[in-house]
Amino acid sequence: MNSPTIRGISDTARWVAIYRAEESERSDAVFRDPFARKLAGDRGAQIAQGMPFAQRHSWSYTARTWLVDRIIEWCVRRGTDMVVNLAAGLDARPYRMTLPASLKWVEVDLPEMLSYKEEVLAGERPECALERVPLDLRESEARRALFHRLGREAKQALIVTEGLIIYFDADDVGELARDLAAPTTFRRWITDLTSPALLRMLQRSIGGLLAEGGSPLKFAPREGPEFFARYGWEAVDTRSLLHTAAKLKRLSLGLRLLALLPDPGGGKPDRPWGGVCMFENANVEIP
Prior knowledge:
Blueprint: H1 9-24, H2 36-49, H3 52-56, H4 59-77, E1 82-86, H5 93-96, E2 104-109, H6 111-120, E3 129-134, H7 140-153, E4 157-161, H8 170-181, E5 186-194, H9 196-212, E6 233-240, H10 241-247, H11 253-258, E7 274-281
Parallel strand pairs: 1-2, 1-4, 2-3, 4-5
Antiparallel strand pairs: 5-7, 6-7
Helix pairs in contact: 1-2, 1-4, 4-10
């Protein structure tokens, strides 16, 4: 019996790293990640080859990476002194972005993922202070203890959950959001978000392979970004992946025409939509 394309949640990080590698190798790349292909390894390349639908739509991963980069830069210019990257996977932003040495970057992920990453990047030097925390984010008590500690250490922290919450149940996303809102120094949060219509499309195209590997796609709230308001987070910026990819000239003709339509901002559950949202902690007055 053949093993599934995806063997576990950590394989999704190797798979997505391939798209960062492919973008970085273009002559007109919109970002450069010189570590992506090495981090993805042969396993990442094999997974990507087995997912032709995702390959055709790799523009969405390029757009997501570019958007998160830009928002991080914006936040750092406005006083963010700590970035907390939950389920950091094979993200290499502390190494590839221009960041102040005074910035503290905290990567949280499963122990085996962080060990693999540390091994591959041995000898490389991050641009800022980097801490890696091995933790299963499903362990709520340990998670809250970590957030409490980091909240005491930071003045203005930015949370990043890129490619994470789509694998959670709605109740688990709500609990995570509430935990993140508790420390008053956790000021802003960046996450990607999917509409129910896009989730159904993804479940039909790549969802089976992910589910076989124990990583089913789950979360796509009908309320869109407003889902997070009840947990203490106010949506202040929402960017469509499709419209961003059009701006970056990464779309086919048909999709470029589709991108001429207005961006619903994730507020229309029956339209396929994926985007990146920035939230602010409603428990804190942010100047």
